[in-house]
Specification:
Blueprint lengths: L11 H7 L3 E12 L3 E4 L6 E8 L2 E4 L6 E3 L4 E4 L5 E4 L2 H4 L3 E2 L6 E4 L2 E7 L6 E11 L2 H8 L5 E3 L5 H18 L5 H23 L6 H6 L2 H12 L7 H7 L4 H12 L3 H19 L4 H7 L5 H12 L3 H17 L2
Parallel strand pairs: 1-10, 2-8
Antiparallel strand pairs: 1-11, 2-7, 3-6, 3-11, 4-5, 4-7, 6-12, 9-10
Length: about 325
């Protein structure tokens, strides 16, 4: 049915991580000193990450214990929740909105904050980013994460690899040479993937549910087919045959591991892909309906609204307005 395809890989979880690509990214290098605090605003659909190049700071996320970050630590705030970075817990209470702190814009996506704070005492240099992960596989994975993920600077093979990448980020951040922004953004993609892998490897709950299903030999292979080829005319029978299972056995195992029936999961996945396509491509609705397995634009529109709560046209209009607002604010 298909030619050579990376989705036939025996590692469906790895293929899901392959889709962790950042878009709508914005990066900030901050040089702080003394008693300082930065309040990072809530941002819908955004993932924040923070790493300390020099010095140390505390990170406060509502509902989570305050964490101290030192060089080599890497922190993710996955769900767009507002939070605070500060010199210490006392300074957190007096944090200034990052919007009210002077920025030097190196480019549309990279800014510098220099010497925020009272200028005395311990200094710290941070590299932070606010990014969006558009692919449904990446979004599904991020939804499973807790409100805060910190990968500590501890010894071990995985941490050693992260430390090498963090050292490269630190070198680029200290003296931003030509192409430095591009290097930092590419390395940040890798750091986020490493952090996700570390969380999956060290979290018992990551071995169940959707993540656990991806790691199952048969159901994981079927999920990879759905994710890689959502526009195929899949049925329970064809997916079962693809993974060498009986229709009834496959259906029961899929529902047990994923928590949803095969066809319901397929329909939801197609709508998620369609939603992201509307946000990222200039595609005719009739063509998108066909890709999503619907014979008419009207039937597709009803299914889309039932799954997402909004119409396809409203998603497109919202994206156009968002792009216009971004261009006018520059």
């Amino acid at each position: 049915m298909h030619g050579p395809d990376p989705w036939t890989s025996p590692d469906p979880l790895g293929e899901a991580l392959h889709f962790v690509r950042m878009t709508g990214s914005f990066y900030v290098r901050s040089e702080m000193s003394g008693s300082w605090g930065l309040e990072l605003p809530a941002m819908d659909d955004a993932l924040w990450f923070h790493t300390v190049v020099d010095g140390r700071c505390v990170l406060s996320v509502p509902g989570e214990p305050t964490r101290e970050l030192v060089p080599g630590d890497f922190a993710l705030v996955p769900h767009g929740r507002g939070h605070v970075l500060a010199a210490d817990v006392e300074a957190s209470a007096r944090a200034t909105s990052v919007h009210d702190v002077p920025h030097e814009y190196i480019s549309d996506r990279y800014a510098l904050i220099s010497q925020h704070g009272d200028g005395t005492g311990r200094a710290a240099t941070l590299v932070c980013g606010a990014v969006r992960l558009d692919h449904p596989a990446a979004q599904q994975l991020v939804r499973l994460l807790p409100a805060l993920v910190v990968v500590d600077a501890e010894p071990g093979p995985r941490q050693s690899r992260m430390q090498n990448i963090l050292a490269m980020v630190a070198d680029e951040a200290r003296v931003l040479e030509p192409g430095g922004e591009a290097v930092i953004t590419r390395l940040s993609d890798i750091l986020v993937i490493h952090a996700l892998r570390s969380w999956i490897a060290n979290t018992p709950g990551a071995q169940s549910g959707w993540l656990g299903a991806l790691q199952d030999d048969r159901v994981g292979a079927a999920l990879a087919l759905i994710h890689g080829h959502p526009h195929e005319r899949w049925t329970v029978a064809t997916l079962a045959a693809s993974v060498n299972m009986s229709r009834s056995g496959f259906s029961a195992r899929f529902t047990e591991l994923v928590g949803d029936s095969v066809m319901s999961y397929l329909a939801t996945w197609r709508m998620q892909v369609a939603h992201e396509t509307l946000r990222s491509e200039d595609v005719v609705l009739a063509e998108l309906a066909r890709r999503s397995g619907y014979l008419s634009e009207a039937a597709f529109g009803k299914a889309f609204k039932r799954a997402t709560g909004v119409s396809p046209g409203s998603v497109r209009r919202r994206e156009v307005l968002s792009m216009s607002a971004g261009q006018s604010s520059r």
